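Help! Submission page says 'invalid entity' but I think these are all valid:
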Amino acid sequence: MNELLPLAILATSLGIAPVILAMPDHWSRCRTWVNLTAAAIKVALVAWISIAVANGGEFSVSLTIAPGLTLALQADALAVLFLALSAVLWFLTTIYAVGYLEGGTDRSRFFGFFSLCVASTVGIAMAANLFTFLVFFELLTLATWPLVVHRGSAEAHRAGRVYLTYTLGGGLALTLGTVWLYSLAGDVPFMPRGVLGELPQTHPLALSVIFALLIAGVGVKAALVPLHGWLPISMVAPAPVSALLHAVAVVKAGAFGIMRVVYDVYGVETVQVLGLAAPLAALAAFTILWGSIRALTQDDLKKRLAYSTVSQVSYITLGVALISPVAAIGGLAHLIHQGIMKITLFLAAGNFAEGRGVKNIRAMNGLGRMMPGATLAFTVGSLGMIGIPPLAGFVSKWYLGAGALDANLPAVIALLAGSSLLNAAYFLPILYRVWFLQPEEELPEKRRIGWMLAVPPAATATLVLVAGLLANAPFSPLGWTRFIVSLEYL
Amino acid sequence: MTETLVLLSLPFLAALAAALHARLSAPIGIGATALNAAAAVLIAGGVLREGPATTAIGGWSSPLGIPLVVDGLAVVMLLMTAFVGLGVAVHAMGRSPMDAGPARLAQTRRWFWPLWLMTLGAMNALFLSGDLFNLYVAFEILGLTAVGLTALSGSRSATAAAFDYLIAGLVGSLMVLLGIAIAYAAVGQVDLDIIPSLVATMQGRIALALIVAGLAIKGALFPLHFWMPAAHSSAVPSASALLSALVVKTALYVLLRVSLEGGADAAPLRALLGAAGAGAMFWGGWNALRAERLKLLVAHSTVAQIGLIAVAIGVAGDGMLWKAAVLLILSHALAKAAMFLAAGRIAEELGHDRISGLNREDLRPGAAEFAFAIAAISLVGLPPTAGFIGKWILMEGLIDDGAWLWVGLILIGTVLSAAYLARVVSRCLRGGPHVAPGARRPEWRSGDAAALGLATGALALGLASSIPVALLELTPA
Amino acid sequence: MTPDLVYLATGAGLGALALWRLTTSSDPLRRVLALNVLAVGIAMILLAAAHGPGGADAVPQAFVLTGIVVLVAVTAALLALAETLGPRGD
């Protein structure tokens, strides 16, 4: 059982991808049925494994590829955090995507690669060594490319080219760093508090360069400035893809990679000894401000959200780089919190575009009366991003601030306050428009928003509220991250 | 023992039968290819159980006798040939839209099987050879049948390419023959294991240089690859697949043997291979970036990939690195065969193979395009394909030795291959306004299955790399 | 010793001439002929090498025979291909 469960979780998306790819396009009912069943089974399996891991269960499976190279999966506490995020949000996004793409072309291709994309996130979550992580990380690049260019327009192809250039470039840096580390250390399994042993004393320079390569490799996907250029451009993708890229799969894979490298490869102590934490924190701080400032001037709603993602994902990096257990709780919790908030915003934005053809902020006046459900979800997401209590975003920011105090870095408090002000400055005007301004002209209903489009943003908005309100419950994201941090900082 | 004789005789006998019975040529060909694969698997099992073996045919010893050597490296190459050949045979067996074409296409189908079976037999003999002269003979048979495969389509461009190929191949063989004779004059033997003593004398070194130059022509190693892009891109798809995936590998195999046998003294040879390989990676990559036709792009990609393999042989000392070269050979064989078959299927359905025209059709050969994409992943060397594992082992070894220049070159070569292959794959991902609502999907044909199977094989081989690596351990070096 | 040297030198000279013709000419027939001359040159070198102090060695002579057989076959194949190609500019 302990070997089968991780494989079963992987199989629920990796196994169905070829099946869906091979289906004729017009088999929509069958495809939807397969998709949703697999997604539901995955949620159940992930729930099972989380409970088992919380009770001390250990799950691992491995396959030797060549001497010294193994593909290995394990479900540790950190893995479960990311697994839960991708399983739940995949389920909801699949429902949304089925509704969104109804009647469109190439749906089998879309859903096939969609499954492959989630399979890669699951693999990234459960990777038990750096090699396995790299394998799934590259698979993620390949699986998301067809999704980005799904619309097939010249613009989409341009975005796809930019996306591929950035991510394959990052992949190359990650590969080089990984191979180099393997050459120094032999196998590099993920273990709490690092696996490098005596190497920091003997090869400090090489380890620092490798750290930079690894962080640059995962940092492309985590959209660390200056490696974030692909993210706003790839907004041409369909809404569910944007939601998935931003909230679950790609940027989170990057942020998760940073966690694995800092916590489970190097270990916080080594990172500190080598003097690598401060540059990383500085980069994260700069990204937070830069993303927020760029978001202010965007009129295209999805672009504003994209720059907001650039900024928000770096909260996670910051939480990791501050080297304080309290900040770490904030950063890890934000992995989940940012995910559910951002997916809410993107799904709502998709509904605005589908329902009334609204893509620019200028045109959003009075949407609240026309589409109350989506607008309400959008409002909850925005307020959460700003950090209004009792929503999820508040909890992460609170812990990040307390961590900054704990690490004796008051400047970070100023950064958080400044960033929250910027968040407010780019979200509140939208909220004002949608609720209080009259539309210049009545927008005709372009398409009826069916339940498949309406329910997922409502569900994730509820999660935002619940994650904030019940933050102290044992299975809340916050409760779980406390459990992880207690392992990393004993 | 019986299995080795099957490998040596069955293909030639079957070729004769297929040539005599035109109507039965396809069943004979498929049957013989399948039997050959089974025999190769049996031999592999034997080597895994009992280790490498040498037999002298008819009890004659050298220099007149013919020693057959079955070790890990030979078995891996035999398996590669057998299974890639099986995939291509599945492609060739299927009905194609060209069946209704002019009479000369019927010729194509008629003569494919005897030529392929002879090629198979020659390659088997080559991999089993334990002496240089035997290698030469196998090369000669191979050279003639490979030219026959090239000319099979009967088109003017293919015939001209076949002519150039035959001349280049014969010049290569003559150089090999001259080298062997000089080696014999120097040492009085032609077994492969005389190579260390050849490296010691001036005369021996000249002999080796001639052999290597001849092999470089046959293996299309830059800058002696001039004949190859035209030959591989103008042949029929199944022939291109065999030529690019298998036939050029035979010369690389012998180069690897020479380098391995030569040991530390063969360092100048390896430096030469490395330099030529680096040149090939750039030259082939650059030409593939500029190619306007799909098959030409794939052919130039072969130039670049042979370069990568030559680099791997060139930088390999003892230890793991030469195994990386073999993994790259295997991965390229599977992926390139898949790619040529897929390109052939795409061209067949679209009626042309201009790269710029791939995304403007209301016709979508999805299966072939998907196979092409998977093969591309393998050629670029992205995980988890065998190409990736090969590159990984190679880079790890190079970093261990501090050879950063080579690491950099390999990374640049990887970027180039990603760039030229993305030109094609991105056009396969068309959608939206380019697609007419009723875009037609062609029917499945055996060619699609073959291409997909081979491409998936390249992917799966990455996960199963421990099997070839275990076999390669059984190579006396 | 001298006849050997003559053989060697002639063989090498023929080979060099033929290689030069092969690389510079584009006429199929000339190239086929050049290839034959190259083979003859190499055969002469081999025969010279076979002639040791203890008389002629059979093995290099067997090599030469094999080479001649291969050459005949290849020449036939080349001529057939050239025939299919037809006159240039066709």
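Support: the input was valid. A stray whitespace character was the problem, and the output above is from the cleaned input. The longest helix of chain B spans residues 156-187.
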